[in-house]
Design a protein that fits this description.
Elements (H helix, E strand, L loop, with lengths): L17 H14 L6 H5 L6 H7 L31 E4 L1 H4 L4 E6 L9 H14 L9 E5 L3 H12 L3 E7 L4 H9 L3 E5 L6 H14 L3 E3 L6 H22 L5 E8 L8 H8 L4 E7 L4 H4 L26 E5 L2 H11 L1 H9 L4 H6 L5 H16 L6 E7 L7 H11 L4 H13 L6 E3 L2 H9 L1 H6 L6 H9 L3 H6 L2 H15 L3
Length: 494
């Protein structure tokens, strides 16, 4: 579903249906819904104090509209207040490299994953412009996991009917959570890399009724705009907080997935021109690296195509991680015997207690960061940032499966996993991208988006050649914030 016009070079930013907007305002007034601005998610300290005070009495995961104001990287899970930035630095005792590797932690978002931000960036522009009628339309969230969870959560908080579409082989925790949220659920054939099957289900629903509005994270610019605005600026703020006089901002690593999170790199490039932006993917499905395909087990990163919203021209390198590696490290970080082995080998207790903050794709991002540090021979002055998208909470069933398949975890296996996966992580399957390598990857969009999904060659070329294409999309945020302000005033709760 293409809801954007490349000729204007702008996402939706004007009132499209006054009657729909009126219905949404009335609905929000009845349900006591206030919308946070992008500027408040970027700088949560600016959230009205009256709202901040109410958050302290509200559980992080409660389906209360006020939890929309927790869609940021600065939630204090202990006090319920807006606190410092949630991050974890993985020490050299684990990584084996001198470069500092730091990840923003998604565990402390509502739903326990940062995708709730991306889905907000997609849905809310539709609500404040009258493009979506909550009395008729259903919000469809196609995803390989956390995006549909975030979309369903936001739908619930915004009094919208939410529909989740995800592969049937995703973790049972995801499906159980969606059921508990009362979502309409469709399980499509395959696993993490079976994205086309998700698209097929979207088309099937669209053909049945126009009540289904597809918020496809792979082509919804609100996804990357949210990360550009919120994630990118948060990383900049964090770097300025933790840097020492000799530190330099050297790298940003993100799994490609929907290409929303890697969109923070567009912001970081503007602030730190020297930064290396690295896209990570599964070795079993090396789409960017080798125009490849296949199934893989790194839950949270969809593959086999290039997302429409990926600004490939701004990606410096691609690396691939064997999907068994993050699973083995998931055991090391979470099994008591693995934690004890790390303790004996000099890893700080405080760090060990926080390693469960990393889920499967988070660990893959950490391993990709190690590859980046080794490839460019970085030292203690180099700082690499990445994203720890979600935590072990979505993957305990995977630990059980591995124990059944591979046997009980042991101290000996702990040493093997640390040595063979982390310490001996190589620069194999790491490729710097030349101009024409980037163009090769960009051109792959044609086969998915022009041939199959109704995009135009003109827009495809504009993404590559029009110097204002991406800038003008990011420029819509102040307009969205003004529309949110106007919307909240009409709701009348502030």
């Amino acid at each position: 579903m293409n809801n954007w016009s490349w000729q204007t070079c702008l996402p939706i930013g004007k009132i499209e249906n006054k009657e729909y907007l009126k219905k949404t305002i009335e609905r929000c007034k009845k349900q006591k819904i206030i919308l946070p601005k992008f500027s408040e998610m970027k700088n949560p300290e600016s959230i009205p104090q009256k709202i901040q005070d109410k958050l302290t009495k509200l559980g992080m995961q409660e389906t209360n509209p006020l939890n929309l104001f927790r869609i940021n990287w600065q939630n204090d899970s202990t006090t319920g207040k807006i606190g410092g930035i949630n991050f974890l630095e993985i020490p050299q005792a684990i990584t084996g490299v001198k470069a500092r590797i730091i990840g923003l932690v998604g565990k402390f978002f509502p739903t326990g994953a940062h995708k709730v931000g991306a889905s907000y960036g997609c849905l809310v522009p539709y609500l404040i412009t009258g493009k979506f009628n909550p009395e008729y339309h259903k919000a469809v969230w196609p995803s390989t996991g956390n995006y549909c969870r975030g979309g369903v959560f936001n739908s619930r908080l915004l009094s919208v009917h939410g529909v989740a579409i995800l592969p049937e082989e995703m973790s049972k925790e995801r499906f159980n959570w969606l059921k508990d949220m009362g979502a309409e659920i469709y399980a499509t054939p395959g696993c993490e890399s079976n994205v086309k099957e998700i698209y097929d289900k979207c088309h099937e629903l669209e053909s049945k009724s126009d009540e289904y509005v597809i918020f496809n994270q792979f082509d919804q610019f609100g996804n990357m705009i949210w990360h550009y605005t919120v994630t990118g600026s948060t990383i900049e703020k964090l770097f300025n907080q933790i840097k020492n006089p000799n530190n330099r901002f050297s790298g940003y690593v993100s799994a490609t997935g929907s290409a929303g999170t890697i969109g923070a790199g567009d912001y970081l490039r503007e602030v730190f021109p020297q930064v290396k932006i690295v896209a990570s993917e599964a070795l079993q499905c090396p789409t960017l690296l080798m125009n490849g395909y296949g199934a893989h087990r790194i839950e949270g990163i969809g593959d086999k195509h290039i997302p429409w919203i990926h600004n490939v021209k701004n990606t410096d390198a691609v690396c691939a991680i064997d999907d068994e590696d993050p699973l083995r490290i998931l055991r090391l970080f979470n099994e008591p015997v693995g934690q004890e082995w790390m303790r004996k080998n000099g890893v700080n207790e405080n760090v060990i207690s926080k390693l469960p903050w990393l889920g499967i794709s988070s660990i893959s991002n950490m391993l990709s960061s190690i590859k980046l540090a080794k490839y460019y021979e970085m030292n203690e002055n180099d700082v690499i940032f990445t994203i720890f998208t979600d935590s072990i909470e979505m993957y305990n069933s995977r630990l059980e499966e591995m124990n059944q398949e591979w046997g009980k975890y042991s101290e000996h296996q702990s040493e093997i996993d640390w040595t063979s996966v982390i310490k001996k992580q190589t620069v194999d399957y790491f490729s710097e991208l030349s101009y024409y390598n980037k163009k090769r990857i960009h051109n792959l969009k044609y086969f998915t988006w022009v041939e199959q999904q109704g995009k135009t060659v003109e827009e495809l070329n504009a993404q590559w050649y029009d110097e204002n294409y991406w800038k003008e999309r990011f420029s819509v945020v102040p307009l969205w914030d003004k529309l949110i302000d106007d919307f909240n005033k009409q709701v009348g709760l502030i």
